[in-house]
Amino acid sequence: MARLDRLRVYPVKGLDGIELEASDVLEGGTLAYDREFALFDEADEVLNGKRDDRVHDLATDFDPAIHTLTVETPGGETRAFDLEADRETAAAWFGEFFDEALSFERDPSLGYVDRREMGPSVISTATLRTVADWFDGMTVEGARRRLRANVEVAGVEPFWEDRFVGEDAPAFEIGDVRFEGVTPCGRCVVPQRDPDTGESIPEFRERFVRKREETFPDWADSDAFDHYYSAMIIARVPETNRGATLRAGDSIEIVAN
Length: 257
What we know:
Layout: E1 3-9, E2 18-20, E3 22-24, E4 37-40, E5 59-63, E6 68-72, E7 78-82, H1 87-98, E8 103-106, E9 121-124, H2 125-133, H3 140-147, E10 151-154, E11 171-174, E12 177-186, H4 204-214, E13 230-236, E14 245-247, E15 252-255
Parallel strand pairs: 9-10
Antiparallel strand pairs: 1-2, 1-10, 3-14, 4-8, 5-6, 6-7, 9-13, 11-12, 11-15, 12-13
C-alpha cells in the first residue's frame, strides 16, 4: 500500500536537509521549514549548490524548535547560529567562509523554493533505489541526498510519481491533503556531485538520460516531459488543504483530478 515514508525539508536553501515526522503545509503551499532561509549576495542572488560547490564542504543540521543552525567545516570547526534572533552573525560567518558579503533572509510563509508558484517535490523510494543502481557505489541515501525531494512515497513502483503530470493526470491524497502534479523536475548540476565531498561522477548526465529513457514507464505521459534529465515531480497543494499537517506513515490514495 502506498504511504508517506519520509518528509524531508531543507531549512537553509542549498544546505543539508532534515527529516521530520510531521510538517504543516504553509499558506504559500510549501512545507514548513522548507527553504525557509537563504543566503543572498550583494546582487540579491541566492547562494546554493548550483552556483558554488563549496556548500558540499559544510555539514549542517537544524533544530526547528529553536531555529538553531549547526555548521561543521572540513577542519572540524563547529558553530551554532540562532536564525530567528541573530541572522547577522550567521551571515558574517558564512560570508567569511565563502569570501563574499552575504545576508541571511527568511520567508516563513513560502520559503525560497525555486518554483514559488508550486509546492512540495515528490519521489518514490523505488525511484531512488533505481537511480542509485545506475551508478557504482551510490546508495539509496546518497540518491536521496542528491535529488533532495520533500515527500518520499513507499510501497509503489519506480517512477510512480510520473503518472501525476501531463494531460488528464490524476491527483493523489496523503491523508486528507490533496496533491496535484504540476511538472517533472528537470535536474541541475547538483545531483552529479557527492553530497559530502562535491566530487562529480564522470558523464553522470549522459548515463542518467540514457537509463531514464530506457526505463521510462509506458503509463507516463511522455508529452509532459521536455527531456529525460528529470526525476521527481513538483506538486501543488490546493489552498483549501493548506494549513493541514502531513505525517510520516499516512496512507496515499490516487484520486481523479
